[in-house]
Write a structure and sequence with these properties.
The structure is a single chain. The chain is an alpha+beta fold. The chain has 21 helices and 20 strands. The strands form five sheets. It has an eight-stranded antiparallel sheet with strand order 15-11-12-13-17-9-8-19, with no helix packed on it. A four-stranded antiparallel sheet has the order 1-2-4-3. α14 runs antiparallel to α15.
Length: 625
């Protein structure tokens, strides 16, 4: 396995308070989910500053570290730094205790997260079947349909087994015994007793006969009981006979309680939940879809979206369709992706352009954390536009009663999940997505004229730039914006810059803390932390100046800008000052990359051979042809 995340994993474990502060760890599709003994020991801001971490959130009894779609690779490295522990589930150690609601949310979320990929995979198989039927490549009467259909149904029918295993791991009791308890609920003999309809009792206790296939609540309650009863038997039974009598008594006692009390109780709860869903489906489903579509990114931000999954699964296993999460989340995710893509088309900041484009594409595929945390939330206006667009699309989807017939990821690949006997359902989700995407794109584009100043250049400036770009072999000279020692770009201590991925250039080790304009032009971007800026010359050269490496973590400390975005600048004008010695004292490398981000537009690119440069010395020579 690659070791590329080893240092990141080590830093995360240290900053959540060390391995001794970690009670449990799980992960979903984008996040590490810690249950900490003392949440106060976690250094949230320090974790957020790590390269490779998008955000850190405390919500629902969990400390969540947002990583992205490669979270499993990071997780595999993190667990190597955690020592096995047997902390109690009901205590939060010696630190702050979690609330009852927090514990419940943590239990439900931690139980469902590991099995979501399997559920999504089975749902996509159903979507594939629906598509094949629509294209008339197979029929519902064919053996192919019959076999593939029960393959996709298997996860739902045997859902108690998966939940038993996952819940037992979460509650630190025996997963094998939990699976045995689930097997009791799904045993053919119990099904036969229900079919015969005769009265049944266990030790004189009446047994309410219920069908437990595809159920959720009964097995969760049963494993919860196991997490108390199994440790009790371990404490009171002698070690010499523990291996035999602990499993025997756990199965006998918990199994009896499950069949007589917890199972029927869970079924009762599930039945009334289903009735509630049916009522909403008949009278207020449009409101549920509208609310989820509009506020889905807020739920994602606080990590609460996973807590709705049990309701969604209960609905689809009892009613055969789902409209609690699916339609609203799909509409919302598409708008987040669209908003990020529009930002990518408007911004002049090359780093933001790259982030916006890649995160926008993954957002359309259903994974929105990168777009949300990396683009839309920091800039705010794309998030507002996306939520308004999602509200419009969600309202249409709600009023037309859109539902999905299987579960899966909420992105473009999930659209076939809406194929069913009534094709109007499929067409309506397409219309809802079109409405949402168009409204989002238009609003994001219009708002960018106000908030994306770096994307806006006046007509007069564009005309000047176009008319003055050299079209002959004459060289364009770019002066040095700093004084100091030059360093070849490939030799600086930052892989992203050294690789040349952002463009050709050079680095300067500053001898004094100021940056001046290397030409006449415009400030097209000024980073909020003031450590970097993007310039556009009147002749069309795009220059990125990044003072120091990883200095974004200083949050603007020791930097003072003397210009604003969109401002005209002249050669030699003071742009930025910084306290060179204090930045070094904080331990930061002050190598300053100066990149021509559109260097591919030039036929010839020559950098200075001087080892020391002063302000306005020639740094680059560029030729168009």
């Amino acid at each position: 396995m690659s070791k590329k995340y080893e240092n990141l994993a080590k830093d995360i474990v240290e900053r959540v308070g060390g391995h001794e502060n970690v009670s449990t760890l799980t992960h979903c599709m984008t996040r590490l989910r810690f249950a900490l003994n003392d949440v106060n020991k976690a250094k949230r801001e320090s974790i957020k500053s790590l390269d490779g971490v998008i955000d850190a959130i405390e919500s629902g009894g969990q400390f969540q570290v947002v990583i992205g779609t490669h979270v499993e690779d990071v997780y595999n490295e993190v667990v190597k730094h955690l020592e096995p522990k047997g902390a109690s589930n009901s205590e939060a150690g010696n630190g702050r205790k979690a609330s009852i609601v927090g514990k419940f949310i943590d239990f439900v979320s931690g139980t469902f997260s590991p099995i979501v990929p399997a559920i999504a995979g089975a749902g996509m198989i159903k979507a594939l079947l629906a598509l094949l039927i629509l294209l008339k490549w197979i029929s519902r009467d064919s053996q192919t349909f019959y076999v593939i259909n029960f393959m996709s149904d298997a996860i739902f029918y045997f859902l108690p087994f998966l939940l038993a295993y996952s819940a037992a791991n979460k509650l630190k009791c025996s997963p094998v015994l939990a699976i045995v308890l689930a097997g009791i609920f799904l045993h053919p003999s119990l099904i036969q007793l229900k079919t015969e309809g005769n009265d049944v009792n266990v030790f004189g206790i009446p047994l309410t006969l219920v069908t437990y296939s595809s159920s959720v609540v009964p097995i969760l309650l049963t494993v919860w009981a196991q997490s108390y009863i199994e440790p009790f038997f371990k404490r009171i039974i002698h070690d010499s006979i523990k291996i035999i009598f602990v499993p025997m008594l756990t199965i006998l006692v918990v199994g009896t309680i499950g069949l007589t009390v917890l199972g029927p109780l869970g079924s009762f709860v599930g039945t009334y939940l289903a009735m509630g869903f049916d009522f909403l489906g008949s009278h207020g489903s449009w409101l549920v879809i509208f609310i989820i579509a509009t506020f889905w990114p807020i739920l994602v931000m606080f990590g609460l979206h996973h807590n709705i999954v049990p309701l969604s699964l209960t609905q689809i296993t009892t009613l055969g369709y789902e409209n609690i999460i699916g339609p609203g989340a799909l509409v919302s995710n598409i708008t987040q992706g669209v908003a990020a893509l529009v930002v990518g088309s408007r911004t002049k900041d090359p780093s933001m352009k790259q982030i916006s484009t890649t995160s926008g594409i993954t957002g359309l595929m259903g994974i929105t954390e990168a777009a949300l945390y990396g683009v839309n939330l920091p800039k705010k206006y794309p998030l507002i536009a996306a939520m308004i667009g999602a509200a419009c699309g969600g309202l249409y989807a709600g009023l037309t009663g859109v539902s999905r017939y299987a579960t899966g990821a909420s992105g473009i690949p999930a659209i076939p999940l809406y194929l069913g006997a009534n094709l109007a359902n499929f067409y309506n989700i397409l219309i809802a997505l079109l409405i949402a995407a168009l409204v989002t794109a238009v609003l994001t584009y219009l708002l960018s004229f106000r908030f994306e100043k770096s994307a806006v250049v006046s007509t007069e400036e564009v005309k000047v730039a176009v008319e003055t770009v050299p079209i002959t072999a004459a060289a364009l000279t770019i002066a040095s914006p700093l004084s100091g020692s030059t360093i070849a770009l490939k030799d600086i201590q930052d892989v992203a810059f050294a690789s040349g991925a952002m463009g050709k250039g050079i680095a300067v080790e500053p001898s004094e803390g100021k940056v001046i304009s290397p030409f006449d032009g415009t400030i097209v971007s000024l980073f909020p932390k003031k450590h970097a800026m993007g310039l556009l010359s009147d002749t069309g050269a795009e220059v990125l100046i990044h003072v120091g490496l990883n200095t974004v973590k200083l949050n603007g400390k020791y930097f003072e800008s003397h210009v604003v975005e969109g401002q005209r600048i002249t050669k030699g004008q003071l742009l930025l000052t910084f306290d060179l010695e204090k930045i070094k004292a904080e331990g930061y490398v002050t190598q300053t990359p100066i990149i021509i981000t559109n260097s591919d537009s030039y036929k010839e690119f020559t950098e200075t051979t001087q080892t020391v440069v002063s302000f306005e010395d020639s740094l680059f020579e560029l030729k168009v042809n």
